[in-house]
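Task: sequence design from structure.
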């Protein structure tokens, strides 16, 4: 779906940091650090060009955006002395589950802002006058989350969207068959009854008891009840298109304007799509 940038291939064990995902403001990397890193690159990889380098939120660990015919643009991470490194698109996540190195590389203009697939046809199948939404300020680009309430990444994305403070539409989808359909209907019915606080309570992140209660309450839903027909039609219409036309097998999907992105995006990368940096390439 759209151009995919290889941003995950190595897990950096034990490096979870808290606070803002943004790295420090651009500061000069010590010459001896650059020299140590360049020496390793020259020894192990032919013709690698350093596009950008900065210190990550983990003290003494440096992100290095490199480029050549083989790697194209990739992110390596190095210790300051050059003795240890993580090659070919390293991953460093914050305690908020944001890919801090990749986000910072995009913010600095070292890597292009990833582009999504065309969401136009899918959005035609969404009736925004009916579905739930996160209330907030009008975003510069319309946001629609295609979510499954039984999926942890969907629930996490909803939490991030709430924290951003922008209005975002929530289109229920039944990725996991009948249990998902029943959970969709149960929550949508709460919304239609004006029980918005209860609706979002059932979508809390990392609360096993809440998820267990959602599953139990959803089992009581009779999908053949005529009062749920409109909701069933809307859920099936969108779910069928995602499964058969787009062939997306795992939730969630997020549309930002007319672009569609698969998987968990997170708040910081979404901000960059809503407000592209001036130096974005």
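Answer:
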């Amino acid at each position: 779906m759209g151009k995919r940038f290889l941003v995950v291939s190595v897990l950096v064990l034990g490096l979870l940091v808290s606070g803002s995902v943004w790295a420090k403001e651009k500061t000069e990397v010590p010459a001896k650090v650059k020299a140590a890193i360049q020496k390793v690159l020259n020894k192990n990889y032919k013709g690698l060009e350093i596009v950008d380098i900065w210190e990550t939120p983990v003290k003494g660990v440096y992100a290095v955006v490199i480029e050549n015919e083989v790697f194209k643009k990739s992110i390596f991470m190095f210790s300051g002395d050059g003795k240890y490194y993580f090659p070919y698109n390293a991953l460093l996540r914050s305690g908020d589950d944001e890919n801090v190195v990749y986000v910072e590389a995009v913010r600095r203009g070292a890597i292009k802002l990833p582009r999504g697939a065309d969401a136009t046809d899918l959005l035609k199948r969404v009736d925004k006058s009916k579905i739930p939404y996160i209330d907030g300020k009008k975003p510069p680009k319309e946001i629609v989350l295609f979510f499954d309430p039984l999926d942890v990444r969907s629930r996490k994305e909803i939490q991030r969207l709430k924290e951003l403070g922008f209005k975002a539409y929530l289109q229920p989808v039944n990725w996991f068959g009948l249990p998902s359909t029943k959970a969709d209907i149960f929550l949508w019915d709460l919304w239609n009854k004006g029980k918005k606080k209860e609706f979002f309570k059932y979508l809390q992140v990392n609360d096993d008891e809440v998820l267990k209660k959602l599953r139990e309450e959803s089992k009581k839903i009779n999908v053949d009840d005529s009062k749920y027909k409109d909701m069933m039609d809307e859920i099936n219409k969108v779910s069928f298109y995602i499964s058969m036309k787009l062939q997306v097998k795992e939730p969630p999907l997020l549309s930002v304007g007319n672009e569609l992105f698969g998987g968990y995006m997170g708040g910081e990368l979404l901000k960059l799509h809503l407000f592209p940096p001036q130096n974005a390439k």
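The chain is about 35% helix and 20% strand.
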